[in-house]
Hints:
The chain is an all-alpha fold. It is 67% helix and 0% strand. It starts with 8 loop residues before the first helix and ends in a 21-residue tail after the last helix.
Amino acid sequence: MGFRTLNSSRAVHSRRVSSVGGYDEDSVSSRSIIILLIGCLSGAVFGGIHCLAWNVLFRGHAEQILWRAASLVIVSAPVSILLLWGCAIWLNSLSELGDIFASSEIIVSLASIFIYIVARVILIVLIWMNFQSLPSGIYDTVAWTNFIPHL
């Protein structure tokens, strides 16, 4: 019961949309570079935000040192991955050294990603551990009507 359209092969080819700017290889490689750049910079900014708590009081000195180390790792791991892949792209464009560099590049990138994940888990555990030692003023009820000027 359906309709069947008959198009000539000439009509199909004359109405085809060109793929200029679509999926050519230069566009794909530039998109992956942009994704890598945005991902690494956002990861470094995320670690920088955690570095803002550099002088916050923790329950113990060990927790404070762990927080600082994990924050620095979270800043430095994406930057190292970005520099490593930038160097790899540069070497691939220069000569045959890119083939030698490729295997060590993958190993170092995977190690950096693993260290980054471990540092994120350490920060999450430290946050949950600090919920145990909240100040007693956190349980005070705030009279919000005192802060509203028109009431």
